[in-house]
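## retry 2 of 3
previous attempt timed out at serialization; input unchanged, resubmitting
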Amino acid sequence: MTRKTLLILGIVMLAGMGGQAQAEQLTQPGLEIEIIRTDKPLPPPPPPPRMGDPVKGAALYERCVSCHGLGAKELTGQTEAELMAEMQNFQMNSYTDPRILKMQRILNSMTQEQLLNISAYIVAQQ
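## retry succeeded, writing output
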């Protein structure tokens, strides 16, 4: 009978450990499982990748300040993808409200790259 060895690297989170990981080694006949543990807290997840350039978006956002205000505070809390979807929706649909028509004219004059940059600027304000 051959002995199979399986090495599993993993982190086991246990309740009551304050978000810290632990380690142990388990052995069963014909199977070895090794779980690597650490007492260090897990690092925070990396931020999602930026799609646009917030520096370029800041310059473009100047056209939005008259309605949305400095720093885009009323627009924060959304992801770049959500903001892009909203702006693309305004580009594609028809409206009669003068405030929305103004925004639609501004958005229709912009490329997709410019919209990505504005989205990145707004997200960076959070």
